[in-house]
Design brief:
By secondary structure, the protein is α+β, with helices and mostly antiparallel strands. It has three helices and twelve strands, in the order H-H-E-E-E-E-E-E-E-E-E-E-E-E-H.
């Protein structure tokens, strides 16, 4: 073969197709056509849905390494927030419970004070309100201490009432406080009147067999006394005004071998739970003093006859 007939140009390393510029223009036009067609006719929507459904498991698996730490952090953060909220709720519940207890206590005190004021309007003698400070330290007596004393005009022997009835009597007075012996004290006695029959008697304080009660003594075995009778002050002792409620008869025991009946009474006053009381002046202090008796005139002596 003659040497002049051979192609001396090197063969291309890759087979070349269309030029890069023509490919760019073609694909740009195709992309523009697809965008216009998708915007106008939604031609690629089914394809996108199919691809999204097919690729969702792959996306889910790919996101798990990121979701697990985030989920764990959110769990502990939510647990901490829930514990904090629970603690705040417990504190708020405790505060509301304490406030509810205070409201109940204040409501009870207001009710008792209203009744005490109503009783004060019915009592004709002068009175003043007092607050119970504490019970006396002696366990063998039934006494309380109130916040009124000599500077407030309280005198020994003054009757003490609460909203329900006679509570006791002032037995010792100090400058700022006073000691009140309750009606259920074993050394206390109060003249009473049966409101149903009008029979008088004397109620004595606490007895060994029935703690916290009174006993109506020296009533004959055949006396007209029934369970439920109300005893009021008779006013004959010069201390208590007449007509104040004292106790209610709880039990009557009549024995053949005894001339007197055993009558037990429940005090109407709150001897173990009162907070406010009313102190009256003794009836004897309001009664005018008895005028002094005039000495009898000396008999005239008859003169001697001379």
């Amino acid at each position: 073969m003659p040497l002049g007939t051979l192609d001396r140009t090197p063969p291309p390393f890759f087979r070349q197709g269309p030029s890069a510029l023509s490919k760019l223009m073609l694909f740009s036009a195709l992309a523009l056509f697809l965008m216009v067609a998708d915007a106008r006719f939604q031609v690629t929507k089914p394809l996108r849905m199919a691809l999204a459904t097919t690729l969702y498991p792959v996306q889910w698996l790919a996101m798990q390494p990121v979701m697990w730490p985030q989920g764990g952090g959110n769990y502990f953060q939510s647990l901490r927030s829930a514990q904090t909220a629970e603690e705040l709720a417990r504190q708020k519940l405790g505060a509301l419970s304490q406030r509810a207890n205070q409201v109940d206590q204040l409501t009870l005190e207001n009710t008792r004070l209203r009744k005490l004021l109503e009783l004060r309007d019915r009592v004709t003698t002068s009175a003043q309100a007092a607050r119970v400070l504490y019970d006396a330290a002696d366990p063998y007596t039934r006494k309380i201490i109130i916040d009124k004393g000599l500077v407030d005009g309280v005198a020994a022997g003054s009757p003490v009432l609460d909203e329900s009835g006679v509570l006791g009597q002032v037995t010792r007075v100090y400058p700022a406080v006073s000691e009140v012996t309750l009606v259920i004290d074993r050394d206390q006695a109060i003249p009473v009147l049966n409101a149903r029959t009008g029979a008088r008697g004397v109620a004595f304080g606490e007895v060994a067999a029935h703690a916290g009660t009174l006993e109506l003594r020296f009533m004959s075995a055949n006396a007209d006394v029934q369970v439920g009778d109300v005893l009021t002050t008779s006013g004959v002792d010069g201390v208590y005004p007449p007509g104040l409620p004292v106790a209610k008869i709880e039990k009557v025991e009549r024995r053949v071998d005894s001339a007197f009946a055993r009558i037990y009474c429940t005090p109407l006053a709150l001897v173990e739970g009162t907070a406010y009381v009313m102190v009256l002046k003794p009836v004897a202090d309001q009664v005018a003093a008895r005028p002094p008796l005039e000495p009898p005139a000396a008999p005239q002596k008859k003169g001697r006859l001379k």
